[in-house]
Write a structure and sequence with these properties.
416 residues, 17 helices, 1% strand, globular, mainly alpha, two-stranded antiparallel sheet
Length: 416
Amino acid sequence: MSDGGAGDEGTAGQGGPSDAAAQTAEEGSSMEGGPSAAGAVGRFARLREHRVLASAVALALAAGAVAVPLALVGSDSCTELPTATRALAKNPAAATRALDPGDDMSHFYAARALLPSGTLCGDGGRVLGQVVDAATRATAPGRPHTTAQARAVYTVTVAYHYADVPPGTAPGLARMLAGYVVDTTGFIDHDSGVNTPAVSGDLAAPDESGYSPYGRFLDPADAHPAFGFEYTASLPAEPSPLFAELAEDPEAFAILYDAERAYLAHYLERLTPQGGDPDFHPEKERGGTSSTATTWPDNDLQGIARVIGALMRARASGARDGTVSDLAAFDAAVHRHTRGAYRTASRQLTSRPPMSGIAGRPVSGALCGDPMDGRHELFTVLETWAKARKVPAGRVSAMRQNLDDAYVEGMHSGAL
């Protein structure tokens, strides 16, 4: 799917549950729903106390249940991941079917019940992450996501909006978010009017002016989870709380950090030499808006920088509150799991690969310097691209300031 050059794209792959697996919904999995996320750090805040009990009660009420099961298991206990659920890790098509809530959400509660919270026995957490990855990734490297796979992402983000991710599961869930990096990075309530958990590539397509609320440079066949769709008010799907929790795991942190840096290189190498959107057609805009060719690129690049800043905030917050007990060890583990540096092609690329091809693109080499200096990573990629493409100095300066402002915002607020 690549145009070639230093910025060539590579990717990751996937497929869909069996009825037998769906039946495990009643065998042992926690429940969820919950209160609204609140706190001084905006949407990135998490309710860290009494989450499991509160979310279990909320989902039980929403489902019409009369009892609150697994979430009340004692903290010293672990729960076995059902055999049928384990089997889904090696059967992507079945995994997608199992976690697909359906376009009408008729299978939501059965799918949600396959995603437990709390501690899972043995390698249960790791296997559960593999199940989620299998259910949501594209069927082959560089292939677009199906709407069923995107709907499965919706199920997972709802399930863990308030409930804790089981230990060991975080890397698998991080791979899921990385595979939909355009959607998770640019998340806003842009799809709040959508009445389905995911939209097809056709529905996400840009209008005549080149604008799409789902981002720029989209593969026309790639489906997108609709994070702004709320099946019920107590079951939000926006991914910020899940992102925040995953960032506490060094391998998951590395996966998410890699995805954002890869997305930055992917995005820049498709811009014009003036740093604008090549697909923007102002003469076809509706409603008399005053957008320019740089309006949405500036917005999208802010999103990338904000997420990287939010990752660094999560790291620092973990060190302060003890979630990250040894910051040096955490950083070393992140470095081990990080794939490398991502630099742009020396020429403008015109390909529109699916999201699975963004996070999976080949690295350009090893990371240099302190990998936790997110600002340095942002500026290095920007300036290398600008020099190769001979971008006007004034535009480079504006883009640099734009990235810096958003990075600081992410560091301070933690908001995606």
